[in-house]
Specification:
It is a single chain. The protein is of the alpha/beta class. It has two domains: 271 residues, 3-Layer(aba) Sandwich (Rossmann fold), CATH 3.40.50.720; 122 residues, N-(1-d-carboxylethyl)-l-norvaline Dehydrogenase, domain 2 (Orthogonal Bundle), CATH 1.10.1040. Helix content is 36%, strand content 13%. The protein contains 13 helices and 15 strands. The chain has an eight-stranded mixed beta sheet with strand order 3-2-1-4-7-8-9-15, sandwiched between helices. It is elongated and about 65 Å long.
Length: 422
């Protein structure tokens, strides 16, 4: 989705970059709330040196930039796509080799669409789960599955069940903006969550390059989990090429060890030492979260929040038109305040990400339904009716709203997402 206003974004970009820079020098494993016990994974020793062969599944708008980035960072990179023209283009233009099965990969990155084939605004994970079925049959035990596609809450654990707990599963939702790839490309601060502790550690090693240097652990009999075992970890500041000294202060953090490989010593955070050991990673700064559900919700809530911002601007625009007020002047005056950013409405909320992900969030709870998001969807529909009416009349006439919202069909305003493009 193209941002509707970039007027105040420079300050926001500077703030994000500062936050990312600070994050690069401080890191600790979160206290996890994951409850999975994976005896089948325990048989697979965690080996940071074996993240060499990677396949990206789905080479569309999301997957192709990921594949290019993975290849640029020294991995043996393959692609898999049901569209042979897409696959051939990736191979001929970018050197992404074609995978015919998933049997020999260390990392499998899923980048498939999660909307219905006949309605890009409707979320659906059937295609993703069919990919997981194939992975379950063919992938080697202990490999890493990273789901970068936007998914509903609970999907990652379903994937873990589908692969019979034999593979590590993390969710690292994508963040990528095509028009500003230098700042908002694949390599920006991102979220990662795992269905178990060892899954999270494996994912961090691949993406971030941290969690790789063994450190002495203390194992006791107190606490919950299988056998009540706990592991005491030491938090240390991140050692980086730009910062070669670590903090002399350390604290203790206790996490459940019931799903960590028994032969695996807990590592500390050090990219420099990882590179010295010959370990490669994507060098993407990652923010680990304590449960995979938090990671799943992060992406859809991000987009639901953006949807709300745009819907507010649309409603304010309709209000101004109904009351003979200059929207542009009002917006300009509002945005003089440092913590206010009213966007500029254009052709309605387009693309497939924001509408689909907002619906995904609305449907994520059986107990609490979001009244504000439901209202935002209605506002966007009213705004579209007004825009269409204005275009037909060739004027900026009075505001008209739809009496039957269900009959309104939102058309994407970007060629990239057009259903007519195959």
């Amino acid at each position: 989705m193209i941002p509707l206003s970039r007027e105040n974004d420079k300050a926001l970009d500077d703030m994000r970059l500062e936050t990312q820079e600070q994050f690069n020098y401080s890191y600790s494993i979160p206290s996890t709330t994951n409850t999975f016990t994976s005896n089948k994974l325990n048989d697979q020793s965690f080996n940071a040196l074996k993240n060499e062969k990677v396949v990206i599944i789905g080479l569309g708008q999301l997957g192709l930039p990921v594949a290019k980035y993975v290849k640029e960072h020294g991995f043996d990179t393959y692609g898999y796509d049901i569209n042979q023209k897409t696959m051939q283009s990736a191979e001929s233009n970018y050197g992404i080799k074609q995978a015919t099965n998933f049997g020999d990969f260390d990392v499998l990155i899923i980048c498939v669409s999660t909307h219905r084939p006949d309605d890009m605004f409707a979320p659906q994970v059937d295609g993703l789960m069919s990919v997981v079925e194939k992975i379950s049959r063919e992938a080697k035990a202990g490999a890493l599955i990273s789901i970068e596609s936007t998914i509903p809450k609970g999907t990652s654990k379903k994937v873990f069940e589908k692969v019979d707990h034999r593979l590590h599963v993390v969710h690292a939702p994508h963040r990528w903006y095509a028009l500003e790839e230098e700042v908002h490309g694949v390599n920006q601060l991102r979220i990662v969550g795992g269905v178990s502790n060892c899954c999270l550690q494996h994912g961090l090693n691949f993406y971030d390059g941290r969690e790789v240097i063994p450190q002495t652990t203390t194992v006791g009999s107190e606490g919950g989990g299988a056998g009540g075992a706990t592991t005491v970890l030491s938090k240390t500041s991140l050692i980086d090429n730009k910062n070669t000294t670590s903090s002399s202060t350390s604290t203790s953090n206790t996490i459940s060890n019931n799903d960590t490989h028994p032969k695996q010593q807990q590592p500390t955070s050090s990219r420099a030492a990882a590179k010295a050991a010959g370990i490669i990673s994507l060098s993407i700064p990652m923010h680990p979260v304590s449960s995979v559900e938090v990671a799943e919700l992060t992406k859809i809530v991000e987009n639901a929040h953006r949807y709300l911002q745009i819907a507010f601007a649309e409603e304010l625009y309709l209000y101004c038109k109904s009351n003979s007020i200059s929207f542009s002047e009002l917006r300009e005056s509002l945005n003089t305040k440092w913590n206010v950013e009213v966007l500029e409405p254009r052709d309605g909320i387009g693309g497939h990400c924001l509408p689909k992900d907002t619906k995904m969030f609305i449907n994520s709870s059986n107990t609490i339904k979001s009244k504000i998001l439901q209202a935002a969807v209605e506002i966007d529909e009213d705004y579209r009716v007004y825009i269409q009416s204005r275009e037909k009349k060739g004027s900026t006439g009075s505001v008209a709203v739809s009496k039957d919202r269900k009959t309104q069909k939102a058309e994407p305003n970007q060629l990239l997402y057009s259903k007519k493009i195959k």
